[in-house]
Amino acid sequence: MILNAAVDSAIAIAERRIGKPGEQVFAGRPYVMIQRAFLAFKGSSWFVVLSGFVEPVLYLASFGYGLSSLVGPMTSSGDSISYAAFIAPGLLATSAMNGAIYDSTFNVFFKMHHGKVYNAMLATSLGPLDVAMGEIGWALLRGLTYAIGFMIVVAPFGLIPSIWGLLAIPAAVLIAFGFASVGMGVTSYLKDFQQLEWINFIMLPLFLFSGTLYSTDAFPRALQIIIEALPLAQAIALVRDLTLGQVHLGTLWHILYFAVMIVGGLFFTTHRLRSLFQK
Amino acid sequence: MPTRSTEVVIAAHNLKKVYGDFVAVDSIDFKVRKGESFGLLGPNGAGKSTTMRMMSATMERSEGELMILGLDPKQDSPQIRAHLGVVPQQDNLDGELTVAENLYIYGRYFGLSRAYLKPKVEELLDFAQLQEKRNEKVEALSGGMKRRLTIARGLINQPEILMLDEPTTGLDPQARHILWDRLFRLKEEGVTLILTTHYMDEAEQLCDRIIVMDNGRIMAEGSPAALIAEYSSKEVLELRFGSNKNAESAKKLAGYGDRLEILPDRILIYCTDAELVLEKINHDGMKPLTSLVRRSSLEDVFLRLTGRTLVD
Ligand SMILES: Nc1ncnc2c1ncn2[C@@H]1O[C@H](COP(=O)(O)OP(=O)(O)OP(=O)(O)O)[C@@H](O)[C@H]1O
Ligand SMILES: [Mg+2]
Fold this sequence. Notes:
Family (chain B): Belongs to the ABC transporter superfamily.
GO molecular function (chain B): ATP binding; ATP hydrolysis activity
Largest sheet of chain A: 2 strands, antiparallel
Oligomer: heterodimer
Strand order of the largest sheet of chain B: 5-6-7-3-8-9
Helix content of chain A: over 70%
CATH architecture of the largest domain in chain B: 3-Layer(aba) Sandwich
Helix content of chain B: 25-40%
Strand content of chain B: 25-35%
Order of helices and strands of chain A: HHHHEEHHHHHHHH
Largest interface: A-B, 39 and 37 residues
Main location (chain B): membrane
Subcellular location (chain B): Cell membrane
Bound molecules: adenosine-5'-triphosphate, magnesium ion
Radius of gyration of chain A: 21 Å
Order of helices and strands of chain B: EEEHEHEHHHEHEHEEHEHEEHEH
Structural class of chain B: alpha/beta
InterPro entries (chain B): AAA+_ATPase, ABC_transporter-like_ATP-bd, ABC_transporter-like_CS, ABC_transporter_ATP-binding, P-loop_NTPase
């Protein structure tokens, strides 16, 4: 088996894909992108990695403990909970979004335009869907690591009152998946660094108004409906349901929301990569 | 010597590429045979790179037909690319990785195994003479070293067809000659070479057959020797009279050779025996500042076909 793999030529490998679904765009090898990311990661600074983990913890320390004496206990679906326990899921969801957006926009933009790294990849038998899935996969691995780190830090403080809270980790990955698959497609439209700034411009209000730090009940009903349709509010609601153990049918809706976002985003991104590099 | 094959590996018919409403490649026809080395020659913007990109199945054609190894890139582009080695005009090495990692991961993109790639990477590091730099990031390489690495990378999958877009631009003369030697060896092993170049000597040395392109069209096609025989004379006499006297002197030179070409800085006289013509001109009392006798080259073919010099 191993010997066989060793003598396999690039041609034999490519020909095995003939007749498989999506053979034009997918070589069945997104893992080589992850391997590339690991190699690049080894040679990069640990500082960037650490910052993704530290950020939500700092927010939690500052708001959770700083504000909780002012805010007092909160009620969520009838349960009384501490303010820190209320915002912890919001911060976890937000950091999942931030990490995924960073990886799928800034990182991808740089590779698209400056390194021309994707041009090189797509001159091999690799397809655009491999590239998209690989890049997104890497973003998810990072998201997973951060989510686990966050949980390890906050759980001992009693901020994850329910055992359902364990599922907040895969939920964070699901959220990251949704944002990364759409983010990469959006990035393909951006022409310069200035346009990249728009992304920050959208992300900050999303963070401030999506119910991270207080419930969206504070807004008038009409505004509330709009906000709740946005992905970050969906993400926060999903993680909060889980960490507080308030799982109900609505929780499934949030999951479905991200499933649709992922599938749509992957189609969109693959299509864009094809028209950008192979047309 | 490779056996001259008649097997066609690339066939283009009415091949066209349009960017927006700009026609970059204008309905061209050509064939490349197995084992030959095929050159695309032309000035900046002629459409060479565009043609190369379509042949490397990385860019879709706008119109016409294109078959690569019997496959149509519209249907089977990943399978086609598995047969090819591609060296783009602009290096697109992975700046986040080291020299050796660049080769290794590129092989992984083809799905090649670690067991195959380990010795292959060593072989290619030797080929590119980059063993000492193997653990450096790509940024630490000079322009010529990057070029060598890009070429080595194109060989990772043992390609049947190697496509080189201006392979030696940026290389010093010694590195160019070493590369030519390597390309010759690949050719002997039966690899089909397709290359673009601005260097006439490169085309004459390396190519069995050439197409000369201008404005997206093919102006002429043939072996270097045949093109020279067809479009130029045996020898050329280059004369300089000083920049403002060239045009005036040209009037007196009509009739000395087969044909005259007046460039801003010099006059070219096409003839069979340039020494003889020079003697006559001196004898008739004209005093060029400098004179040069040389063989006709592809440069002259190009000048004849387009009225322009190839290297600005
Ligand atoms: N992506 C693109 N979008 C629009 N126009 C393009 C694009 N790529 C090339 N062109 C145009 O198509 C023409 C042919 O370009 P191409 O790169 O094929 O030329 P070339 O023969 O390789 O030139 P050079 O010797 O400078 O490399 C040029 O006029 C160029 O401006
Ligand atoms: Mg070019």
